[in-house]
Amino acid sequence: MSQKDRYAVIGNPIEHSKSPWIHAKFAEQTGEPVEYGRILGPLDGFTRGVKAFIASGGRGMNVTVPFKLEAHALADSLSPRAAKAGAVNTLAFGPDGVRGDNTDGVGLVRDTEVNLGVSLKGARVLLLGAGGAARSVVLPIFDRAPAALTIVNRTAAKAHQLVDQFARDAAESGVRFSGGGVDSVEAGQYDVIVNATAGSLDAALPDCEDTAFGAGTLAYDMMYGAQPTVFMQHAEKLGARAADGLGMLVEQAAESFFIWRGVRPDGGPVLRELRQTLAAKT
Ligand code: ATR
């Protein structure tokens, strides 16, 4: 029997997941006795896969595509941010059952503020997309006290739904909050524009006014790859600074590690090494 506590990421497909590599680095950095593997979840057997891992002594899991909604349904209890997101990417197994959390939003916020050095406090933020990825980041963005958040989506009705869902949280946080179709983009440059659409997967550029981008804008794509995404290239042409989602991947993992171990790893050096590995593959 291994002396280490066991964790894993479950998804389908899973072979390209960088989470085992990232968590191995965190374990090394913090000295925590953590062993982290990958599990290919059967498309019709997510719950079975989780239960088998618990039965074999597993302590927690990360959950990735396509199981984040099923993980939300499976959890016995949820953090407020996971409940609002409607999706779970982190499971912790304890005496009180399965606890579900969502660390994606904190991952985005920490990458933006700590790694990229762009404070969200008082910022005007534009969020493109209104699916699961967008919903996961709304509350953590509010927590950083931006001046305004605008949600813009190809299908305006879905953005309106999110605005309704989070209206009270926005009011409590003192954030000006609105959204809809592309005509909801407000005049002037935004400080931060986040692409949370699935567009980059098929190299599609989400609709947005060019006037939203400028020299003072950080254009953040939640996707990443060896090459800059079409969204990043577009933003740079308009004079903005562009970033991909590799740092969000590392920082959401750091937050999961913190939930499990009570110790927060430093994502910076791990991100730099991961970036080099990615560049070396091109
Ligand atoms: P995820 O969990 O990754 O957010 P999702 O819930 O299916 O996935 O949401 C996908 C998001 O990407 C939606 O906002 C979708 O817009 P619609 O609601 O109009 O479908 C957006 N999206 C996907 N492909 C897009 C494209 N080519 N251009 C613009 N938006 C796109």
TrEMBL record:
Gene Ontology annotations of biological process type: amino acid biosynthetic process; aromatic amino acid family biosynthetic process; chorismate biosynthetic process; shikimate metabolic process
Reaction catalyzed: shikimate + NADP(+) = 3-dehydroshikimate + NADPH + H(+)
Subunit structure: Homodimer.
Pathway stated in the Swiss-Prot or TrEMBL entry: Metabolic intermediate biosynthesis; chorismate biosynthesis; chorismate from D-erythrose 4-phosphate and phosphoenolpyruvate: step 4/7
Family according to the record: Belongs to the shikimate dehydrogenase family.
InterPro entries linked to this entry: Aminoacid_DH-like_N_sf (IPR046346), NAD(P)-bd_dom_sf (IPR036291), SDH_C (IPR041121), Shikimate_DH (IPR011342), Shikimate_DH-bd_N (IPR013708), Shikimate_DH_fam (IPR022893), Shikm_DH/Glu-tRNA_Rdtase (IPR006151)
Boundaries of every Shikimate dehydrogenase substrate binding N-terminal domain copy: 9-91
TM regions (residue ranges): none
Domain SDH C-terminal stretches: 245-272
Protein task: Involved in the biosynthesis of the chorismate, which leads to the biosynthesis of aromatic amino acids. Catalyzes the reversible NADPH linked reduction of 3-dehydroshikimate (DHSA) to yield shikimate (SA).
Gene Ontology terms for molecular function: NADP binding; shikimate 3-dehydrogenase (NADP+) activity
EC top class named in words: oxidoreductase
Active site (catalytic residues): 68
Ranges where the Quinate/shikimate 5-dehydrogenase/glutamyl-tRNA reductase domain occurs: 119-170
GO annotations of cellular component type: cytosol
Family matches, as HAMAP family: Shikimate_DH_AroE
Residues annotated as binding shikimate: 17-19, 64, 89, 104, 224, 252
Source species, domain of life: Bacteria
EC number of this enzyme: 1.1.1.25
Protein name stated in the entry: Shikimate dehydrogenase (NADP(+))
Record's keyword terms, sorted: Amino-acid biosynthesis, Aromatic amino acid biosynthesis, NADP, Oxidoreductase
Keyword NADP part of the UniProt annotation: yes
